[in-house]
Amino acid sequence: MVTLKDPTLLRSDCLIDGKWIAAPGRDAPERTTPVTDPATGQIVGQVPDLGAAEAETAIASAARALPAWSARTAKDRGAIMRRWFDLVIANADDLAALMTAEQGKPLAEAKGEVLYAASFLEWFAEEAKRTYGETIPAPTADKRLLVIKQPVGVCAAITPWNFPAAMITRKAAPALAAGCTMIVKPAEQTPLTALALAVLAERAGVPAGVLQVITGDARAIGGVLTGSDVVRKLSFTGSTEVGRILMAQSAPTLKKLSLELGGNAPFIVFDDADLDAAIEGALASKYRNAGQTCVCANRLYIQSGIYDAFAARLAEAVRKMKLGLGTEPGVTVGPLIDDAAVRKVESHVADALAQGATLVTGGKQPPLGGNFYEPTILTGVTQKMKVAREETFGPVAPLFRFETEEEVIAMANDTEFGLAAYFYTENVRRVWRVAEALEYGMVGHNTGLISNEVAPFGGIKQSGLGREGSRHGIEEYLEIKYLCSAIG
Ligand SMILES: NC(=O)C1=CN([C@@H]2O[C@H](COP(=O)(O)OP(=O)(O)OC[C@H]3O[C@@H](n4cnc5c(N)ncnc54)[C@H](O)[C@@H]3O)[C@@H](O)[C@H]2O)C=CC1
Ligand SMILES: O=C(O)[C@H](O)CS(=O)(=O)O
């Protein structure tokens, strides 16, 4: 079990229509789903197994709450978002403890994510007041033209397990700031963090029906949220495969969509790179969250002149990593989310070795039990291997050798994904050539960490649609209205 300073943040019910409800069951007093710790398999909580009926209730509640919420001033909504931010900061240790219990990431990393999640609340508390319209010089003297911004309306969010707090606030913060209402369906693996955030939102003054969190049957709940004409927008973070399904389900009602999907990030190191910086960046980008982020370096392309030195330095650093329970001091790499994730990583490593790659370090599950996988480095990797074509979503660094800039750009772009890319060089002319040639929504130069609340996060190609965070993030929750007034 998880110990909290404020035990009321550990919820076993859902916030729907301003009420905390369990799941009324036919043969049992209520239907619940266990939440398990991926490091130990222990049950850390129970949440309601809700479905279509409760999703319909939530939609009706969100629609009822919309007029009053969108009629409040931006300043008023911003003040409530700021109070939510203050409460998340004040309860950051408890939120981090819940996150580590259900997702497994080391406590320090979980705390970092809580602060990252809070930053979206702080940012959009301010952006609420900057949804400016415009006036347009009319082509005829008898007209006055202007543009105003209005909230999209009732919104839905379906969020992943890898960032249980930040992927919720990165959607709910701009939605509520813009005057929308939102129904959140968190991942079945990590609902406790979402429910705790809802407790704090309620305490901050977010009215009934404005923010709702529903757990249970993803397909049934998702089917209602995507099929309803009342829901005007869906924001999803998760696999490209599910993103396609949700997009198709949303098509009949022509919803606005924000999709943050899979990635296959190249991490390119040229001969002239600062090797210390490149190693630091590779460790941060590759092994953050045990490699379970959509912007993790998935392919490491190292120019021939420094290939052996880079491999040796990276191996030396990786061997110092400490695998273990997220609550243990000094642990830097936690477990993967579930057994399926471990099997996917194992299949990628086995495929690479079968095709001639060399295992430098790691390459197996340690004797810890749970869903742990050793931080791994492979050399002699080629574009034909699964690690080059698929998102590994685990702590595996495949090192590819390259000779020329043209060759590596072609290899880096040889994927259907286009989320994040990274490269290291000290040549200023090359910075512009490579940054502009890489087909990705986000590019890091001489850094492996690019995510923050002020920058537009999102991808191109099959990594998704739209942007989150930054001044662009709130536009995803606004409609433009053009007003033409004849005064002649
Ligand atoms: N872009 C990103 O940040 C993420 C990418 N992924 C990728 O997806 C792969 C699979 O991870 P999963 O957790 O299984 O991601 P997923 O895409 O299956 O799940 C993400 C969310 O979608 C929901 N969902 C799944 N199927 C649904 C459906 N038919 N209707 C409505 N909701 C549905 C889940 O309940 C969860 O809330 C990972 O290995 C990784 O490659 C996973 C998580 C985050
Ligand atoms: O979904 C993810 O993996 C996150 O968006 C990555 S980040 O925002 O924490 O970098």
TrEMBL record:
Pfam families: Aldedh (PF00171)
Domain of life where this protein originates: Bacteria
Gene Ontology molecular functions: succinate-semialdehyde dehydrogenase (NAD+) activity
Annotated GO CC locations: cytosol
Keyword Oxidoreductase applies: yes
SUPFAM superfamilies, A to Z: ALDH-like
GO biological process per UniProt: gamma-aminobutyric acid catabolic process
Catalytic residues of the enzyme: E260
Family: Belongs to the aldehyde dehydrogenase family.
Keyword presence, Oxidoreductase: yes
Name of the featured protein: NAD-dependent succinate-semialdehyde dehydrogenase
NCBIfam families in the cross-refs: SSADH
Domain Aldehyde dehydrogenase span(s) in chain numbering: 30-482
Keywords: Oxidation, Oxidoreductase
